[in-house]
Amino acid sequence: MTIESELTDISVVRYMIRRFGLRLKHRLGQNFLIRKDVVDAVVEASELTPESRVLEIGPGIGTLTQGLARTGAQVTALEIDERLKEILERTLEPYSNVKIIYGDVMKADLSGIMGGARWHVAANLPYYITTPVLILLIQSGLPIDLITVMMQKEVADRILAAPGGKEYGALTLAVRYYCEAEKIMDVPPSSFLPPPAVTSTVLRLRMRKNPPVTVRNEKLLFRLIKICFAQRRKIFSNNLRNGGISADDAARILETAGIDGNRRAETFSLEEFGRLSDAWDQIQSEDRTNSSCKTETDIL
Ligand code: SAM
Description:
Structural class: alpha/beta
CATH topology of the largest domain: Rossmann fold
CATH architecture of the largest domain: 3-Layer(aba) Sandwich
Mean pLDDT: 93
CATH class of the largest domain: Alpha Beta
Distance between the termini: 89 Å
Strand order of the largest sheet: 4-3-2-5-6-9-7
Bound molecules: S-adenosylmethionine
Strand content: 15-25%
Number of helices: 12
Helix content: 40-55%
């Protein structure tokens, strides 16, 4: 039995934890995979070739890392917990194509690590940090083509949600704007040591070359989405007013976009949010033009 081939075997994982005196940290989401078919599915979904570069977030004891390394791709793994160093040196020793960096993914210089090349990302993400990591990966303009990630099923359901349901929200729309999301599989708690309290899901996010809607002002689109989902049970015209937009401007936005303000924002598609944010941007620039004309008239 080699450590290289058996890391998904629960007795090997238990042995490694005992042998290296590791106390698992719940707060770092240290639930290690113990199912080979799940590791294989994540690796296959990652679409790696020996020419690829893949960033793994949170290698743990190196279970998924080994699978990624066996594709021949260049693997960079970023791990926050330096106590895992001794184990990782041992489990990843046979792979010259793996580099481990110790640090926090939220603070690491990812664009420095990635340089000019194109990257894939693969991870069994720690649950406490799933949403901020995803937002960082998709919104920072990093050179990433594909992200294959395991997360809490509840977060995956929010990402895949259709308009109208309670799971549909700002995360759904942000991911939809930047990526095409696809479910690979659900993974039960028994696939990890120790088992987490919830079911997990593996998603593959393919970064889009162009967003599915073209808007005049991307920042305004996401500001509008944030305002709307801050109070999701309210009707849309009330969301606008609560977001500091005057009743007058709210009426103009709705009229310009041709949208019924009595609907709830949770029923709007990304395309409808795009129309509304363009209408808002348009009335803002009309107002700017009008006020500069007024100032000139005043001066004259
Ligand atoms: N990849 C391994 C597997 O599938 O068995 C371990 C996955 S475990 C769910 C999450 C890993 O992420 C742990 O090793 C944990 O120490 C690491 N981690 C937690 N927070 C992190 C952070 N902010 N930056 C980098 N790694 C982190």
